[in-house]
Amino acid sequence: MNRAPTLNAAGVGSSTRSETAPILRVSEVTKSFRHGLWPFGARVAVLQGASLEVGPGELVGLVGENGSGKSTLMQIIVGLLKRDGGTVELDGALGYCPQLPELWDKLTVAEHLQMFAAAYRLDDATAKASTDRLLEELGFARYLDYRVEALSGGTRQKLNLALALLHEPQVLLLDEPYAGFDWETYLRFWEMSAARRADGMAILIVSHLLGERERLDRIYTLKDGRCISS
């Protein structure tokens, strides 16, 4: 699979990077939203210069209270929200597991996997190998022919994670990825993360509470619109 080009601050592509340089760099990102009816509503700043970075093979956490702007920052990195200021530099293919699974109720698990494989432009052999691996790792092969509307919340989250990993991205963004997982799947999630980290994947995990801090290289706390490293 071809690696996606670097996107620098100006949006110009580049095909080279250092193995030790950050693969994801967020610098001084700002974002505010208007609350109330125009023209009387006030703008409320959510991000006020948020900065973080993740290198190849790093597992990094982003924590903060509910409403601190964690999901907003993730959506800006992915490109779902426009930032007011700052820069986002990403080198490589991106995988994104949103907090709320964005799935189609009337499609089956297999149809989701096939659709995303086509979107990622995977050839048949690569798509099958990746699909088989993820079904085994997450233990939900028996649900292949089930429509999403018939799945439990935990199984939907397994599919949500599988779709983000299907193309084995260089950068993986996870927003509350284990919500709804049972204990066995929760442990398997960390095993999967460790294996991909060892292969050089850069992983950013967002949560309001991280109980596995010893597994992480670094943790950022989002407070008052800024990321504080610890």
What can you tell me about this protein's structure?
With 230 residues, the chain is of the alpha/beta class. The chain has one domain: 3-Layer(aba) Sandwich (Rossmann fold), CATH 3.40.50.300. The protein contains 5 helices and 11 strands. It has helices at 70-78, 109-119, 124-138, 153-165, 183-198; strands at residues 6-7, 13-14, 24-35, 42-54, 59-63, 85-91, 94-97, 171-175, 202-207, 218-223, 226-229.
List the uncertain runs: 1-18
CATH topology value: Rossmann fold
CATH class: Alpha Beta
Tell me how many strands there are. 11
- State the share of residues found in helices, binned by percent: 25-40%
Shape: globular
Lateral arrangement of strands in the main beta sheet: 7-8-9-5-10-11
Percent in strands: 25-35%
Largest sheet: 6 strands, mixed
Q: TL;DR?
A:
With 230 residues, this protein is of the alpha/beta class. The chain is 28% helix and 29% strand. It has a single domain (55-83, 93-229), classed as P-loop containing nucleotide triphosphate hydrolases (Rossmann fold), CATH 3.40.50.300.
